[in-house]
Design goal:
The protein is α/β, with parallel strands linked by helices. It has helices at 2-12, 33-41, 43-46, 58-67, 79-88, 112-116, 123-140, and strands at 16-20, 23-27, 50-56, 71-78, 92-99.
């Protein structure tokens, strides 16, 4: 299934594709917003899912691990994210490019979520940090 998800990811210009129980869904928001929403609103869809993701940093890795994802292909993955997956040893991970860290959208510094999760390898703690970050982003931009 992963090869089909990769093809859908690239052909459709999506940021995330998730396949589980015979269903494939595509997502297009940037960052971890779609993964976070899936984990909080529809966690059953993530459990045991195969995922193709454009960019995976440590925050996205933590959310996938919290959600019980079984397989991931990342076009780009950060070293901290890959270490987190290897430490958990529960997700079959493939990738095209390994980078030291994910950069922010302007390329001027580290991705804010990757930076937020840098100090911990605790999945629950990463989830809480990401949750607070997303709530603060939504509060400052209610029209997203």
């Amino acid at each position: 299934m992963t090869a089909a998800l990769i093809e859908i990811l690239r052909a459709g210009g999506h940021t995330l594709v998730v396949g589980n129980v015979g269903r494939i869904e595509t997502f297009d928001r940037r960052g971890v917003a779609d993964l976070y929403e899936l984990l909080t609103v529809r966690p059953r869809f993530l459990r045991g899912a195969s995922v193709a993701d454009k960019v995976v940093g440590k925050g996205a890795a933590a959310l996938m691990l919290a959600g019980g994802v079984a397989a991931l292909h990342a076009d780009v993955i950060s070293e901290p994210a890959l270490r987190l997956f290897k430490r958990a040893a529960t997700v079959d991970v493939t990738y095209d490019a390994l980078v030291p860290g994910i950069r922010n959208r302007t390329g001027t510094g580290p991705c804010p979520v990757e930076k937020l999760c840098a100090a911990t390898d605790d999945i629950a703690e990463c989830y809480e940090l990401i949750s607070e970050f997303i709530k603060s982003q939504n509060a400052s931009n209610p029209h997203q």
